[in-house]
Design brief:
The protein is an alpha/beta fold. It contains 10 helices and 10 strands. Bound molecules: NADP nicotinamide-adenine-dinucleotide phosphate (NAP). The site of NADP nicotinamide-adenine-dinucleotide phosphate (NAP) has 31 residues, from helix 8 and helix 9.
Length: 341
């Protein structure tokens, strides 16, 4: 093979890994697969297949992204190409309308069937609220049977998620969009504790306290929307939102390194100890993100400068999960350390 015909890409052996409390190793960058209601399933699936050829081994899926059946075709091809199942790290998530005790196992089985897999590496409860809302709905949409977080109910769901491990359908289980008070209850009551927690994390939303809590409890933080989700749906935008990739500190570091500001955000999350899962459907961009985590690290001065631009700017606020009139999205996030009822 001539030098010019070698495909671009990154040796997966060079990608940093996180060791979970079980001893399993998870690649410290994954490809997000939420098309934000604008990138069609076929395009996301094509990106998954190509990203694997370029060295990605970790993929963040969810039933609600409505593309698992397409992504499953890509996984089938990836496995046929000679990449072994054990080399991949595949996550899926239980959607909010499937928290019922009888719904959890069938829901996981459906994701497995769609993804053409025998087991998942990680299965998460996507949100701590069982509140259904239709896909693509408006930010003002509220479900008639919306409920606050009720720990007893969450534990009933968690018991079923634990059974998935016993059954061999999921190797690990975890949480997403949790807060410290909710996690404290779960850690008290779980038979199998969560191995990861997915959380919004980007330079303008660093969530240091939650990050430190997770680390102190042996839970790996997965950073979602690590670039500040510039392509997120209109329903997830408010006038107060700030833009990480336009922040002068990020822009200046990117200029010096000759990369897009998005790559600086991904590098920062990984170097800070999280596992970023940036979405991209563009080869140039998902390749640049992967290269970003294997290239020379940001300087300690860069890391200090980025630590200084946190704005506590939550982008994925979750308004559709509110359960009574007159509430604001802050009520979902237990800001004063108490679970709102
Ligand atoms: N657990 C949860 O509740 C939850 C919530 C939100 C997200 N997530 C997960 O996290 C993943 C990522 O979050 P996200 O999709 O909200 O946002 P994100 O990863 O912060 O941003 C994705 C956007 O950045 C652009 N981008 C990516 N790399 C780039 C680069 N190198 N240069 C320039 N632009 C670049 C992409 O455009 P192009 O496609 O044009 O590259 C896309 O519009 C999701 O896909 C999903 O898997 C989970």
């Amino acid at each position: 093979m001539s030098a010019t015909s070698i495909p671009p890409g990154v040796d997966p052996g060079l990608v940093p890994q996180r060791t979970l409390y079980t001893g399993a190793r998870m690649p410290a960058i994954g490809l997000g697969t939420f098309g934000s209601d604008r990138v069609p399933a076929e395009e996301v699936a094509a990106a998954v297949k190509d990203a694997a050829a370029l060295g990605y081994r970790h993929f963040d899926c969810a039933s609600v992204y409505a593309n698992e059946d397409r992504i499953g075709l890509s996984f089938r091809e990836i496995l046929r190409s000679g990449i072994r199942r054990e080399e991949l790290w595949i996550t899926s998530k239980l959607w909010n309308d499937k928290h019922g005790e009888d719904d959890v196992i069938p829901s996981c089985r459906k994701s497995l069937e769609d993804l053409r897999l025998d087991y998942l590496d990680m299965y998460l409860i996507h949100w701590p609220f069982p509140n259904f809302h239709p896909p693509g709905c408006d930010v003002t949409s509220r479900s008639g049977d919306a409920r606050p977080y009720i720990h007893e109910n969450y534990m009933k769901t968690w018991r079923q998620v634990e059974r998935l491990v016993d059954m061999g359908l999921a190797r690990h289980i975890g949480t997403s969009n949790m807060t410290i008070p909710k996690l404290q209850l779960l850690l008290r009551d779980a038979r199998i504790k969560p191995a990861v927690n997915e959380m919004e994390m980007h330079p303008h939303m660093q969530q240091r306290e939650l990050f430190d809590f997770l680390r102190a409890n042996g839970i790996e933080p997965i950073a979602y929307s690590p670039i500040g989700s510039p392509g997120r749906p209109a329903r997830d935008r408010t006038p107060e939102d700030t833009v990480d990739i336009e922040d002068p500190v990020i822009v200046e570091i990117a200029r010096r390194l000759g990369v897009h500001p998005a790559v600086v955000c991904v590098k920062w999350a990984c170097q800070a100890g999280a596992t970023p899962i940036p979405f991209s459907a563009s080869r140039r961009n998902y390749l640049a993100n992967l290269q970003g985590v294997v290239s020379p690290p940001l300087t300690s001065e860069d890391m200090r400068a980025i630590a200084g631009i946190d704005r506590n700017c939550r982008l994925i606020k979750g308004q559709v999960f509110l359960w009574k009139p007159g509430q604001s999205w802050e009520d979902l996030w237990d800001l004063d350390g108490v679970i709102k009822q």
